[in-house]
Backbone:
């Protein structure tokens, strides 16, 4: 492949990075605005949290639909339209004045966009553009999901402080709309040049594609391991780490700083995992990530005695947080096939979201029951190690004849 032909694919890696950074920043804005809505609008945190959980459920429903659309029609309209929908949802949040409008704007409209502008969609697009360096390219593109928390969210927090939450959500919406034409124009050429996979998948019945995945042991291993991944990341850490730090008596600023460190290391961890996916046995890599993540929870059992342990945990967990995405996407591409990758990754991402919802709820329930988080951390250790043992059952080389067969002429 010539240097000129490489420019387009790597440019699209950057576009996927930006799209995910904006979408995940819009999701994170909910936590930043929650205290402001509590004081200004009188909304209890339980209501805003319910809105966030409802958005997660909507995303879980949308994820496989979006994945199937990528397989059948490509990603240009899906990513461009999804970014526009996120932007529209942010504009509605900026002008809302009632609870029902918040649920409509964030938990429905924006959530539909979040489900489309998601890591599984970007990973599918990138996997089709790269054969060599597929893992590295996937790691860089999908690391936008954590880069938003590291780069965009601090800017958003500054806007919230200086100009208020309405102008902040307005800025988010306008930024999304500004990115839409860039996505559509950049993907237009690739759609006409290369998308043989969507053209073929468009003629394959959905039932046949689903039945192929249901019968695949590889799909089940990746699905259930990723659901456990969602429990220990989106569910437990993203929801309960900062409340746990507050329960330990740590001030908000150092706790938030530790979370920022986690996000920074997370960004590097995703890129490193992507590079390693091209260099070593991928099931072994993924198994190590899950088991190491589980062992890192041991530190949280002792954090209350020393805030420095919180920062050590942030570094260790950050390495193994979203770093499961590149090797999982790479295994889906090689073991299940590019033609069905979008649908497979969509279903796997739905499992991740539902696992996260269970982790968020169960973490709160266990804390209410025992007034401490120890059982949450112990359960997370066990589930993360279980996920690691599951993926170690896979082979790095796909079974012969187990990928999606070509469509009949």
Residues:
């Amino acid at each position: 492949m010539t240097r000129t032909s490489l420019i387009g694919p790597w440019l699209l890696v950057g576009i996927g990075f930006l799209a995910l950074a904006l979408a995940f920043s819009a999701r994170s804005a909910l936590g930043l605005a929650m205290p402001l809505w509590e004081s200004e609008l009188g909304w209890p945190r339980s209501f805003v949290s319910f809105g966030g959980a409802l958005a997660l459920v909507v995303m879980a429903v949308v994820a496989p639909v979006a994945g199937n659309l990528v397989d059948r029609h490509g990603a240009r309209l899906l990513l461009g339209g999804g970014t526009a929908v996120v932007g529209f949802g942010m504009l509605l949040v900026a002008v809302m004045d009632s609870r029902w409008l918040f649920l409509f704007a964030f938990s429905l409209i924006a959530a539909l966009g979040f489900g489309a502008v998601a890591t599984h969609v970007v990973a599918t697009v990138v996997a089709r553009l790269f054969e060599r360096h597929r893992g590295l390219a996937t790691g860089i593109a999908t690391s936008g999901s954590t880069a938003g928390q590291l780069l965009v969210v601090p800017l958003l927090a500054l806007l919230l402080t200086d100009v208020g939450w309405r102008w902040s959500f307005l800025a988010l919406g306008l930024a999304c709309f500004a990115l839409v034409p860039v996505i559509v124009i950049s993907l237009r050429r690739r759609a006409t040049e290369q998308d043989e996979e969507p053209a073929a998948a468009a003629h394959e019945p959905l039932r046949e594609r689903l039945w192929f995945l249901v019968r695949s042991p590889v799909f089940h291993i990746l699905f259930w391991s990723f659901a456990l991944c969602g429990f220990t990341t989106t569910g437990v850490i993203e929801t309960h780490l900062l409340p746990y730090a507050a329960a330990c008596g740590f001030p908000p600023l150092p706790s938030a700083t530790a979370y920022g460190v986690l996000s920074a290391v997370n960004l590097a961890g995703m890129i490193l995992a992507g590079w390693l996916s091209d260099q070593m046995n991928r099931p072994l890599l993924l198994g190590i990530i899950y088991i190491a993540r589980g062992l890192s929870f041991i530190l949280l059992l002792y954090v209350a005695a020393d805030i420095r342990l919180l920062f050590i945990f942030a570094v260790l967990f950050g390495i193994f947080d979203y770093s499961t995405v590149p090797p999982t996407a790479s295994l889906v591409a090689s073991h299940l096939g590019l033609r069905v990758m979008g649908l497979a990754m969509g279903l796997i991402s739905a499992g991740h979201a539902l696992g996260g919802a269970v982790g968020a709820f169960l973490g709160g329930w266990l804390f209410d029951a025992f007034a401490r988080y120890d059982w949450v951390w112990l359960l997370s250790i066990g589930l993360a190690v279980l996920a690691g043992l599951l993926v170690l059952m896979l082979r790095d080389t796909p079974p012969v004849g187990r990928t999606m067969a070509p469509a009949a002429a």
DSSP finds 17 helices and no strands in the chain.
